[in-house]
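Lecture 7, part B: from sequences to assemblies.

Below are the input chains for today's worked example.
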Amino acid sequence: MAKIVGSILTSHVPAIGRAIAGGLQGDPYWKPLFDGYPPVQKWLQEVKPDVVVILYNDHGLNFFLDKMPTFAVGAAPSYQNADEGWGIPTLPAFPGDQDLSWHLIEELVEKEFDVTTCQEMLVDHAYTLPMKLLWPNAGDSWPVRTVPVCINTVQHPLPSAKRCFKLGQAVGEAIRSWDSDARVLVLGTGGLSHQLDGERAGFINKEFDLAFMDSLVKDPAWATQYSVDELIEKTGTQGIELLMWVAARAALGTDAGSARLLHSNYHIPISNTAAGLMLFDSQD
Amino acid sequence: MAETKKRVSIPGTTLFDGEAARKGYALNQMCYSFNSADNRAAFVQDEAAYCRKFGLNAEQRAAVEARNVLALIAAGGNVYYLAKFAGILGLDVQDLGAQQTGMTKEAFKAKLIEAGR
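Predicted structure of the full complex, as structure tokens:
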């Protein structure tokens, strides 16, 4: 059966794409962010995952309001990046893993997650930038196959933290029951606290972010006590992207002992966002 | 009786729910079209015609013309789509934040840095 090697949780701010395109990694503004990633890159060189299941949210590249799935799973042979409206250079296409896609779909629906399946899917900065941060020297060909699991954070009602935790748990169980010798990484992208819209724009909550990060080590279900509205009050309208972190951590297991924290980083601000990074290895 | 959903009123915050999604559909559809560079160019070439093509209502058209983010949100705009419109105008998310909070961009950026202390 397939093995989950670990889980990486990271922010995915679009401006990171501009910084990468402009070669600004060593710039004083950007250095505290980019300096967080080499320990994770080194770990990836050692554990060598074959496939990455990426839990992320689309920002109006693949999905519009005409059809807005709560949970969508990609089942494409490859996933293209495309212009999101700002003309930032696109990254090379990501190879898919259709066997794992369909196994995930079968298992998730069996567990009553009635996901939307996508045999064509464009992936935006929430997918591409974390991958570029993890494999900065990938060039034109990524060293891993990928499977997208997209969670709606655009249009309310959003799925609750409790539901996303269960989704992550189900994704983890599905990977472990996949008849393959593949080594699988689970990547969750988004957050942490930030708000782009309204008079409260610029809202950041360092105290809550740090408590949330700590909870993923000690009590991974901690955030599920809060409703979506309560989480937005505490983290901002886009801070709710912590849902992807909740899900990706739950994929490793639901108790503190299921994963070990190997590395973390936290920096304010990147653009309007508190940027976070956590690396867990699986203890199962 | 059905259980009432626990809602929290958050000052300075509009949640993009079904009501906003219905109200803002045309505006958001236009902004979604700006993923394409050709469409961005078409908007710049003839803004009024482009807005007509998508059937913006008077409130949406006025908010677009005024480049007013709070008015765009009030007209049903969703920030993820509006960000694509902001891209045409050459505005980044600090520009948007400054405009919505009535601060200068420098003051808004200073506020973000302060949040990290």
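Note for the exam: The longest strand of chain A covers residues 259-270. Keep this in mind when comparing with the next example.
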